[in-house]
Amino acid sequence: QLSLTAPTPEPALDTMLLMHDGSQVLLREAGPSDVPLVDALHARCSPASRRARFLSPSPRLSRQQLCALVDPVGGRSVLALTRDGGSAVGLADLRLSDPLLPTPTATFGVLVEDTWQHRGLGTALVRRVAETAEDLGMSELIGTVPADEVRITRLLRRAGLRPTAVLADGTLQLNVPLATPAAMA
Questions:
Q1: Tens digits of per-residue pLDDT, 60-89?
Q2: Torsion angle of C-alpha atoms 65, 42, 158, 175, degrees rounded to 10
């Protein structure tokens, strides 16, 4: 007797997330059609938030930069949307290094609209990006922030990660080790 079973689908990224203040956001994978939402998110952020994420307070990103955020080559991005899906309020992007390197790594970035900060959204986005990087076999996340931007290290620690930071050329170079499948065995 033959038994046919359907393959188990991969878990959907779409997740409704309850924030500390009771508000809700939808987390889902970003794609090329999200460029207008990310452009509007970036424009609504304060110069300080844009500088922390992009090392520049510029109110506009180029079309090429926006496309790279929502559809990173060899990576993934997670978009946080208001409950009705009408506005993006956060974005975390992950760009993979060469997976053939002895210790594959990924660069990451997080941007949360100022009015949505301090609700747990940044922590949730960082956790999702770290989980994705681990699933892809990455051993480390790497990031760069302005030298005076220490909030990111607290955010990473709240997400359960243990970053190290090195001051170089006026920026903090962050290294965040991940639990790789080999390390978890």
A1: 999 999 999 998 777 899 999 999 888 999
A2: 20
Name the packing angle between helices 121-135 and 151-158 (round to 10°).
Answer: 70
pLDDT in tens, 97-133: 776 777 778 899 999 999 999 999 999 999 999 998 8
Kindly tell me if the per-residue pLDDT of 169 is higher than 50.
Answer: yes
Q: Tell me the C-alpha distance between 159 and 181, whole Å.
A: 19
- Exposed/middle/buried for residue 51 (C-beta within 10 Å: 0-12, 13-18, 19+): middle
The Cα 156–Cα 83 span in angstroms is: 25
Rounded Cα distance between 131 and 161, Å, is 11
Closest to 182 (Cα-Cα) out of 102, 97, 108: 102
**pLDDT tens across 9-52, in order?**
333 458 899 998 999 999 999 999 999 999 999 999 999 999 99
Structure tokens at 30: 């970003």
Give burial (CB, 10 Å; 0-12/13-18/19+) of 136: middle
CA distance 41 to 149: 20
Other CB atoms within 10 Å distance of the CB of residue 164: 11
Tokens of 2: 């033959």
Of 101, 81, 68, 177, the closest CA to residue 133 belongs to 177
